[in-house]
Amino acid sequence: MSIKQEFFTLLGGRVKMRHSQYNPTSDAVWLAAFAPTGCATILDVGVGTGGVSLCMHAHTPNAKITGIDTSQSMLESCAQNAQLNNAALELINADIYSWRTSRTFDVVVTNPPYFYGTPASHNAHHNSDLSLWVSRCIARVRPMGTFCIITDAATIGTVVSVMATKLGDITIFPLFGAKSTAERVLISGRLGTRGMGVLHRGLPMNYEPVLRDGLTIADTLSRIYQTC
User: Fold this and answer.
1) Which residues contact 3 (CB under 8 A, 6 or more apart)?
2) In 3D, which of 214, 18, 45 has the Cα closest to residue 113?
3) What is the spatial distance between Cα 158 and Cα 162, in angstroms, rounded to a whole number?
4) Worst-scoring range by mean pLDDT, 46-50, 64-68, 115-119, 134-138?
5) Which residues contact 130 (CB under 8 A, 6 or more apart)?
């Protein structure tokens, strides 16, 4: 991630964003890289200032991307970032807990509120019912569609316990920082399937082919397996 004046970039410059009240971290890049490409419709739950959505737009430019968030100020920042990247995002000011809609999507992604304690000023990632959040996200997945989430490793039991009741083909991909244990975990599942789960060996969180070069995780794994 590089910084230039009032802007910073993701994916080695492919995504440009303004500095604002909440600047996405590498979690956004990882989540976008983990999600399947080639889909027609995407829902980003807790879109914030657009980090995940705009990285997904870089990977799948023809998809229709919808973002939902409770913060109007973050949505305004997201709209500005979308304009910077020539991305036509649909932005909805609503709460996933109470959003009344029958719409479903090919892919639903979320970087959820998994921390507890005193919230930061932007109030993101704090003090929410994670089980209910995951359940509401899955409700917006179309049959045979995919749900993808990045979460703190400490919450993996909560997330998987909800996903396992509704989804199949559950895939778990750990991300490692300086510690020997995972710090973040990417998890996906498909609605309407009964496939077995897969646990990958994971990658370091500072892995440059994803963060700088903009590879998806599918492309990254393909390259790794080709060299094995």
Assistant:
1) 19
2) 45
3) 7
4) 115-119
5) 112, 113, 114, 151, 155, 158, 159
What are the structure tokens assigned to 2, written together?
Answer: 């590089």
Nearest to 142 by CA among 81, 203, 101, 187: 101
Given this model, what pLDDT does residue 179 score? 86
Residue the block writes with tokens 């990045």: 150
In degrees, to the nearest 5, what angle opens at C-alpha 193 toward C-alphas 190 and 197? 70
- Cβ atoms 9, 214 nearer than 8 A: no
Say if residues 142 and 106 touch (Cβ distance below 8 Å): yes
Query: Maximum CA pair distance of the chain?
Result: 49
List of residues 6+ apart from 224 with CB closer than 8 A? none
Q: Per this entry, what is the length of the chain? A: 228
Give the pLDDT score at 22. Answer: 80
What pLDDT is stored for residue 125 in this prediction? 46
Position 228: which residue type? C
- Alpha-carbon span 194 to 130, nearest angstrom: 24
CB 93 within 8 A of CB 69: yes
The CB-side HSE value for 82 (13 A sphere, CA atoms) comes to 24
- Pairing status of strand 41-45 against strand 105-110: parallel
Among candidates 10, 1, 2, which has minimal Cα distance to 84? Answer: 10
Question: Against a cut of 0.85, is the pTM above it?
Answer: yes
- CA torsion 97→118→159→183, rounded to 10°? 140
Question: What whole-number distance in Å separates Cα of residue 32 and Cα of residue 35?
Answer: 5
Per-residue tokens: 18 = 């303004």
